[in-house]
Design brief:
With 318 residues, the protein is an alpha/beta fold. It has 11 helices and 13 strands. The strands form 4 sheets. Strands 3-2-1-4-5-6-11 form a 7-stranded parallel beta sheet, sandwiched between helices. It starts with a strand and ends with a helix.
């Protein structure tokens, strides 16, 4: 079972599971997931889409693995309905863990680097407990994911549920929504449409960007690891870039003449974000292979193909 299976990351997980010959139940309410992400899987006899909201219930199905990926992941998306975002993380996680307790399934939790907040330790290691606001506009996501981790480890200690917790750092690649508000998709779409690229402040904030194929490989190495490797384990690319550097690279690769403009800093926006992946390298023999330039090339091509199908974008391009 893959909750959030029609989402950006969830659909790539479904792809790999189907390629392995698994029977896959994709559970998604399609609030941020997209039918287009899984359209190619609908004809597979091993694939079933179940339209449901994890805050309400999960199908009572015998499963061996539960992949918990149901939650909007970009600030514009998760701030649109912050209460639902928090409940998706917390109640959705509880429902996954309850089903695992009943079926004996292993649970994968897609946690996030946002649990570190605006970090005072750099790069971020799994032992760092974070610097997170519980009252700011990002708290619905940050604290929701922190609470979901707590549930995972409490269910492990109390009921023996087999868990795997990954802390995901910024990820990009094909199947991102052009309108999801993440920095990579924003920059690429605006560059392709000739619109301004917006950076916050002077653009000196840093992020690390992991291509989706690398990340999903890390997912499966963690999920299929032997022993009691519960995590949490950082998964991300330790290459660190400022927002201004990313904007300039996107402009170069798209050949765009879009201007770069400065906007006020959002509340609680992290100043720097970079994973220490020593644990993943040592225990999973994992490290990302795709360079930012190589990954952006594939992502730009994907957006170029999709934008021609988006009526709003075609209006801009005409």
């Amino acid at each position: 079972m893959v909750t959030g299976g029609a989402g950006f990351l969830g659909s790539h997980v479904c792809d790999r599971l189907i390629a392995e010959g698994k029977q896959v139940y994709c559970v998604d309410n399609l609030m941020s997931g997209r039918r287009a992400n899984i359209a190619h899987l609908r004809s597979s006899p091993g694939f079933t889409l179940i339209e449901a909201d994890v805050t309400d219930s999960l199908p009572d199905i015998e499963v061996d693995e539960i992949w918990s990926l149901a939650c909007p992941a970009s600030p514009p998306c998760y701030q649109r309905d912050p209460v639902h975002t928090l409940m998706t993380s917390v109640m959705g996680m509880k429902r996954c863990l309850d089903l695992a307790r009943k079926t004996g399934a292993r649970v994968f939790q897609a946690s996030t680097s946002e649990v570190y907040g605006d970090p005072e330790v750099h790069p971020q290691v799994e032992s760092y407990r974070g610097y997170v606001s519980s009252v700011g506009p990002r708290a619905c996501y940050d604290e929701g994911k922190r609470a979901a981790e707590t549930l995972c480890f409490d269910y492990q200690r109390s009921y023996g549920v087999d868990i795997r917790v990954a802390r995901i750092f910024n990820t990009y690649g094909p199947r991102m929504s052009p309108h999801d508000g993440r920095v990579v998709s924003n920059f690429i779409v605006h560059a392709l449409l000739g619109e301004p690229l917006e950076i916050y402040g002077n653009g000196a904030q840093t992020r690390s960007f992991c291509f989706v194929d690398d990340l999903v490989d890390g997912f499966f190495r963690l999920m299929r690891s032997s022993g009691n490797l519960a995590g949490p384990v950082n998964l991300g690319n330790p290459g660190e870039f400022t927002m201004l550097e990313l904007a300039q690279l996107v402009l170069e690769m798209t050949g765009s003449n879009s201007p770069v403009i400065s906007c006020p800093l959002p509340v609680d926006d992290p100043r720097q974000r970079c994973p220490d992946i020593g644990l993943a390298t040592a225990l999973l023999d994992w490290k990302p292979k795709v360079s930012l330039r190589e990954g952006l090339r594939a992502t730009i091509e994907s957006f170029q193909n999709e934008l021609w199908l988006e009526p709003r974008a075609v209006e801009h391009l005409s």
